[in-house]
Amino acid sequence: MDDDQLSQVFAALADPTRRDMVARLAVRDATVGExxxxxxxSVQAVSKxxxxxxxxxxxxxxxxxxxxPCHLEAEVxxxxxxxxxxxxxxxQDRYERLDGVLAEMRGDERPxxxxxxxxxx
Amino acid sequence: MDDDQLSQVFAALADPTRRDMVARLAVRDATVGExxxxxxxSVQAVSKxxxxxxxxxxxxxxxxxxxxPCHLEAEVxxxxxxxxxxxxxxxQDRYERLDGVLAEMRGDERPxxxxxxxxxx
DNA sequence: GTGGTTTTCAACCAAATGGTTGACAACGGT
DNA sequence: ACCGTTGTCAACCATTTGGTTGAAAACCAC
Lengths: 121, 121
Prior knowledge:
Low-confidence stretches of chain A: 108-121
Number of helices of chain A: 5
Strand order of the largest sheet of chain A: 1-2
Number of strands of chain A: 2
Largest sheet of chain A: 2 strands, antiparallel
Shape of chain A: elongated
Oligomer: homodimer
């Protein structure tokens, strides 16, 4: 289910630590230890964070001996962007249409249906 | 703190019910009751959801008698898009650079450090 | 094979989350 | 003035989340 992945992706990025990890993975791949380094938490905690990112499809892990290098997966970002863009666009359009309506009815006392919610009438 | 708002926005959109509400608010403004209608949960629960969206800055509420019409705020989407675009772009760039490297070394048997993680040796 | 490094698994804990119900505030209609 | 409607607040409950510690798996190096 795509909706479910979207939920996972948003949830994953809701955490500042995980967003920071993504930011660093955008620059270069890194092992769990390398990722854990800057933070003042246990490696286990970071490992969990990576699992969350991986489950969301934002990160993939491969093997290199004991190490598990993490790689940022760019495709998932498109999923988000698509979702956001759709509704941002609609909201924006409505806003601009309202602007047009307001300009059009300068001096008119009857609000159009765009403003119904405010119309006590 | 901008980082904090970003966390709130992502967290708010991690819930499918709230995403659906946003989708409907993108079409038209709606009261709490109207928003609650399609869902099989109490109005109180929906009221809470709206509070989360409002705290994140995604939604604003006004007054109309007993009713509290909700309005989608488009600007916050830009905050998200900006964050996402930055890292998507970097990841994309890196990916394309890798493509270039791969093309450049056609026939070479030694993988560069870009591929280390996959190299079983 | 023994030991060190890297990472994950398991159990546990405190805090946050999403839901419930009950009470009540705010308002319009009659 | 009352009643119905609309929405929020408060208390509560189950589940999830982000952290901890301890143990163990997987691997290289010696």
